[in-house]
Design a protein that fits this description.
The chain is of the alpha/beta class. It is about 40% helix and about 15% strand. A 6-stranded parallel sheet has the order 3-2-1-4-5-6, sandwiched between helices. Helix 1 links the parallel strand 1 and strand 2. Helix 1 runs parallel beside helix 7.
Length: about 190
């Protein structure tokens, strides 16, 4: 695929962004979305940009969750989205602990570049919505618009921005505000 055929995407973090982050979620029974998630994603879908999930899941590397359990959780997420006419173009996760020093765990950029290569995504026309310092750093490193949502760890991450240690292109109180920001930007293109 040549560059003229590539289009942007909306990269989404999972825990703390789409759903509350109680620690390690190890069962689909424990997986619930934030109340505004589906409405926000429905609004985002009007842009025509595909959704791609990028999530650090060190619980696998720590032996706290099996990959089959993670797959079941992601199947539940797919089902919840499908019930509202929404779809994830791809799900990418890093199973490693921070100590392993891999290139896929955010803030490293491996998941972004893998998704871009496999899905034909133009990173410079893309967005990343996440709640952590790692999400913002990774987005900035690959030239994706970094959007911090203040759910999950977002308020703590915002302090890093306010202290001048980090910069994000936009900070929203919740996923709906982040969606509105992207919808408005895309309407101007």
């Amino acid at each position: 695929m040549d560059d003229s055929e590539k289009k942007g995407a909306i990269f989404l973090d999972r825990d703390g962004t789409l759903n509350p982050d109680p620690g390690y979620i190890d069962s689909p029974d424990d997986y619930e979305l934030y109340p505004e998630t589906l409405r926000a994603l429905k609004n985002l879908s009007t842009t025509g940009l595909p959704f791609i999930l990028l999530t650090n899941q060190s619980g696998i590397g720590r032996g706290l969750i099996e990959e089959t359990a993670l797959e079941a959780i992601h199947n539940k997420l797919d089902t919840l989205l499908d019930q509202h006419g929404l779809v994830l173009l791809g799900i990418y996760y890093c199973p490693h602990t921070p100590e392993e020093g891999c290139n896929c765990r955010k803030p490293s950029t491996g998941m972004f570049t893998q998704a871009a290569d496999e899905q034909g995504i133009d990173l410079t026309s893309s967005y990343m919505i996440g709640d952590s310092v790692a999400d913002v750093l990774a987005a900035n490193a690959v030239g994706v618009q970094s959007i911090l949502v203040k759910t999950g760890n977002g308020q703590r991450t915002e302090k890093e921005i306010l202290n001048g240690k980090l910069s994000a292109d936009f900070v929203g109180d919740n996923l709906s505000e982040c969606a509105e920001y992207i919808v408005n930007l895309e309407a101007q293109r």
